[in-house]
Amino acid sequence: MDYETHLSRIATTLFEAMAKNLDLNLETSKSYLSVDTGMVRVYRYPRGSVGWGMEVHTDSSILSILNQDDQVSGLEVLKDDRWLIVKPISNTLIVNLGDMMQAISNDRYKSVSHRVKVSKNNDRISICYFVFPGEDVVIESSKYKPFTYNEFSAQVQQDKKALGYKVGLARFSQKQDC
Ligand SMILES: O=C(O)CCC(=O)C(=O)O
Ligand SMILES: [Fe+2]
């Protein structure tokens, strides 16, 4: 089996466990995670560059599974307003929840803000797997207006172009109109 197939199996198992924990309807939740959308991206962060390898963001995915460099650190996650360095551990995967999981869970699970620092002395490699809902599957929750991943990603592109940054889920909030 190839890497992506293994990762899609892990993502499905994790998602089903979370859906069960959230008491989501089995059929509805099954339609949310689309393993066909899974994609693998490999990053190389060259050593010594100034600034961030990747600026602060949340992923738009349901789940992101990272296989980060087992020697060179760089990944930082925001927890309780503090940045934590995710230490490299060999043979260990890191699971980040994305915006779609936050919406599906009606904010009970939060997408994690994270960023990547460039190492002074070493290049850093990470292999990242992302999985999304099917493009036209409507995500329903009480905190957000019903939306599809297609609509979400179009809005993200539009905001990045017009404002220079991603507004994200706040755009779809039931409460505020921004
Ligand atoms: O390279 C990493 O460890 C993280 C990459 C990342 O956050 C992303 O691609 O969204
Ligand atoms: Fe990310």
From TrEMBL:
Domain annotation Fe2OG dioxygenase: ranges: 36-133
Signal peptide, first to last residue: none
InterPro entries associated with the record: IPNS-like_FE2OG_OXY (IPR044861), IPNS-like_sf (IPR027443), Iron_ascorbate_oxido_reductase (IPR050231), Oxoglu/Fe-dep_dioxygenase_dom (IPR005123)
Listed PANTHER family: 2-OXOGLUTARATE (2OG) AND FE(II)-DEPENDENT OXYGENASE SUPERFAMILY PROTEIN-RELATED
Record's protein name: Fe2OG dioxygenase domain-containing protein
